[in-house]
Amino acid sequence: MKDITSQYQNADGTSAPLNTRSGFVAIVGKPNVGKSTLLNSLMGVKIAPTSPRPQTTRKGVRGIASTDETQLVFVDTPGVHRPKDALGKYMNGEVQNALSDVDAVIWVVDLRHPPADEDSMVARSIRDLRAPLTVVGNKLDVAKYPEEALRLYTALLEGRTGETASVMLSAQNDVTKVAALRESLAANLPENPFFFPRGAASDQSREQWAAEILREEAMKKLRDELPYAVATRVTDWTERPDGLQRIEAEIVVDRQSHKGMVIGAGGKQLGAIGAAARKQLEVFLNAKVFLGVQVVVIPGWREDTEALRELGYE
Ligand SMILES: Nc1nc2c(ncn2[C@@H]2O[C@H](COP(=O)(O)OP(=O)(O)OP(=O)(O)O)[C@@H](O)[C@H]2O)c(=O)[nH]1
């Protein structure tokens, strides 16, 4: 995930002030310990349904928390949010793969109970990761012996060499402690340009999100040629059984003459825009992507309320 930083400026097209920190954070833990609740609290708003709606990004990003200088990108870990097959996934190492790429890991445990087998499995899957790990002892508000419980959980990490911290809190109620956790995570992120525009949320559909990535790439490449911003939309998204994501998208211009500029001589410009967008999508979706991009002319789309609505500008 990290290698794209060398190729990109900030996602909003501005160049990166060198003091920004940005990175990917995974929240793991057995079912029902409060992962979604913690994510919602970390975000400060309710954004993560316990089971994501089908149109939201299934793999990839669950939430983004940005300040002026930092951007925490909370990512999904296959298996971790699906109670039923979670155990199998931990066992076969898929989780491990997904986690090998992140900049920080949060392990949520339930302080009301001592560790169970599932907790030991989670512990095994994260013990050897190099990324800094924070053990969050959750449900402090209703735990009888929180310190003892936390000690038993951290003991499962014995032998771990990576940086490890722990905190006890109530993801539901401890606004201050959750804020402190967010700040400490952000402060420890690597120095990176932002991966997403500052205002990006995570409750947009995956289609809107992908269209936005395409639009940013188009704007970067067309900045000197086109006198105005283009619009983009995803018209079709199919996931093939082999995992390939087939995405059809459009770049919308309002004059025939602009269409040529976007396409470029021999289709070169459009090819470069598509390739750059595809690369980003592949990194974030962690899957092979086919991205087909058409340029369409909608005369006067910027004045046309109907067209604007259709393009997602309301
Ligand atoms: N008392 C108390 N309950 C909490 C706290 N945090 C979460 N819960 C409750 O614990 C239950 C599980 O919370 P979730 O956030 O859905 O847990 P999860 O780990 O995301 O669950 P899965 O999606 O099944 O993996 C819910 O009923 C929450 O309301 C807390 O700090 N205190």
From TrEMBL:
Residues 55-59 are annotated as: G2. Residues 222-299 form the KH type-2 domain. Residues 76-79 are annotated as: G3. Residues 21-191 form the Era-type G domain. Keywords: Cell membrane, Cytoplasm, GTP-binding, Membrane, Nucleotide-binding, Ribosome biogenesis, RNA-binding, rRNA-binding. One of its GO terms (cellular component) is plasma membrane. Belongs to the TRAFAC class TrmE-Era-EngA-EngB-Septin-like GTPase superfamily. Era GTPase family. This is GTPase Era.
